[in-house]
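User: Okay, second chain of the day. Same drill as before: sequence in, structure tokens out.
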Amino acid sequence: MDRLSTLLSQFGVRANLFYSGKLCGISSYDGADPRGHVHLLQKGTLTLKIPGAGDRLLTRPSLIFLPRPSRHQLIADESDGAQLLCALMEFDGGVSNPISASLPDLLVLSLDELPLLADTLRWLFSEAADGHCGREAVLDRLFELLIILLFRHLLDHHQLSTGMMAGLADVRLARSLTQMHSAPHRPWSVAELANESNMSRAAYAVHFRSVLGQTPADYLLSWRISLAQKRLREGRPITLIADEVGYESPSALARAFRRKTGCSPSEWMKSLVDEIS
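Assistant: Same drill. Structure tokens below.
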């Protein structure tokens, strides 16, 4: 059972390197960019400042992971010797996609606590230091690999307590969640999902809600609508989308879409066009 591949095939991640070098002064991010950030402190020290969260002094090589737009500052003096690699990141489906929504606002992890990422980090730092052709393209792909390996680390070490990623890390829920992700068109019942998890229907429903914060039916609705939104962005006709995500007709999908988002698919698409213009 591959908990991540199906998820990432639907909501992939893209990264773009935007800075590599020493930090001397204050680097500020206002949260206006719709993308998240990954900062790698390779060596030296710096202060991470986030409004309302106080200052955090980092004295060891560290990964700073902000999956959604966030106001923050990185601060270092020349004497601190802070060496950074920084990338913007975004998931298919925008800021409300199910992967991003299941992650905390901020993760700060020392690199020596991430052995699974060690080889990729060495490659990243080596590539950043060299001037080979294709350097930025390689660094972009390595950052994407780094993010996927970070997710694997979070799942393997049960470092998230609630949300979809916590559910995928839960041995009793992972199989049923993966099945919903892989086959959203199936008319899943709580009894069928509980059977996938080798639990009674009642125990499954209680445990699911305690970990994911919603009922199995609500989660399946959210997953289907997230997929529908992604396909609408891609220009797929709603007739095909309805069948792919488990609704017998476009009107049935439209009713579920309105129940979840408060608007119809066409109204939602219009709002996207208005945001762009």
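The radius of gyration is 21 Å.

User: Thanks, on to the next one.
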